[in-house]
Amino acid sequence: MKTGRKKIVISEFMDAPAVESLRRHFDVHAHASLVDEPERLSSLLADADALIVRNRTQVTAALLADAPRLSVVGRLGVGLDNIALGACSERGVQVFPATGANAAAVAEYVIATSLMLLRGAYLSSAAVAQGQWPRTALSNGREAAGGTMAVIGFGGIGRLVARLARGIGMQVVGFDPQIPADAACWQETGTRGMSFDDALRAADVVTVHVPLVESTRNLLGPAQLQRLKPHAIVINTSRGGVIDERALAEALTQGRLGGAALDVFADEPLKAGSPLAGAPNLILTPHIAGLTVQSNERVSTLVASRVTNALLAGEHDSTTTKEH
Which residue among 239, 245, 298, 306 is the active-site one? Predict the structure, then answer.
């Protein structure tokens, strides 16, 4: 139905109050199931001015071709590997991620899983409830205080992780080839910048915060994992493919690594028969490190605001052009 208002399609979950804020200005079609209904999504995009997605909707050149009026893409998150940025640029489509809005949630996930895996005692509830008393076996955990966290990728989330780690008494080292050695962020966060290999060798905990591009694919592979201390913990909340999952599983199974927490995977959902299945000291979560009640509100509100401003600015520009 034509309303004279610009049209927004939302193909994945978005916080309800943010959706309602968009409805005040636009014709909004919000269906979390659209990501799994490509034909319906394509039909809705035929006359859409904006599309809002999370990480599952693939904004490809083909999808853009089905949306000739599209001028704005909102991303309910920060990773952009599901969006064909080159194709968007060629079409003049603006892309608005929720930069910074879920940083606190991710940083807390990193600290929480670090503490769980270093201590190694928090998965014993069932055994204790059944009358077992594995006190000796669980008395050799490590404290985070005095240990070293290596932050690989020192953007906004990496810097917040560094601050939280310092707050619980950890030393922090970092690596980011995009940030100069004399950049203020190292000193401001109490972090010592160093080479990638040196950071790995120093670490009791390694946390990865990089995009998935060709240079970061399998950034932590067999050779890199061998540089870690046998008790070291590896955490990945960035993108699947950054860590070689088979090599990680082998290191855990062979006792060459203390533990790992993975929130992202090369294939999502994780396929049955993955080499990770059955690996010890491994926490697996379904890409939710950045998802909390509060972060969903912040992410949705921020993207709604940016999409609204862009579309209304476009209306203003159009009116000005017509007047002149």
Answer: 239
Q: What are the residue boundaries of the structural domains of the chain, listed by start?
A: 7-101+294-323, 103-284
- List of E strands, 98-180: 148-152, 171-175
Reply yes or no on whether 31 is catalytic: no
Q: Long-range contacts: 283-290, Cβ < 8 Å, 24+? A: 283/113, 283/116, 283/117, 283/259, 285/109, 285/261, 287/55, 287/263, 288/263, 289/105, 289/106, 289/109, 289/110, 289/237, 289/263, 289/264, 290/77, 290/78, 290/102, 290/105, 290/106, 290/109, 290/237
Q: Could you read off the pLDDT of 67-120 as tens digits, one per residue? A: 999 999 999 998 898 999 999 999 999 999 999 999 999 999 999 999 999 999
Task: Encode 277-310: b = buried (16+ Cβ within 10 Å), e = exposed.
Answer: eebebbbeeebebbbbeebbebbbbbbbebbbeb
The CATH fold assigned to 103-284 is Rossmann fold (3.40.50)
DSSP state, 236?
E
Distance, in Å, from the CA atom of 233 to the CA atom of 206, rounded to the nearest integer, reads 6
142 noted as active-site residue: no
Residue 82 structure tokens:
């599901």
Catalytic residue among 56, 268, 315, 316: 268
pLDDT (average), residues 23-40: 96
Going by C-alpha positions, the residue among 4, 13, 21, 7 that lies closest to residue 304 is 21
CA distance 143 to 27: 53
What residue type is assigned to position 258 of the chain? G
pTM: 0.90
202-224 confidence digits (pLDDT tens): 999 999 999 988 999 999 999 99
CATH architecture of 7-101+294-323: 3-Layer(aba) Sandwich (3.40)
How far apart CA 29 and CA 42 sit, in angstroms, is 13
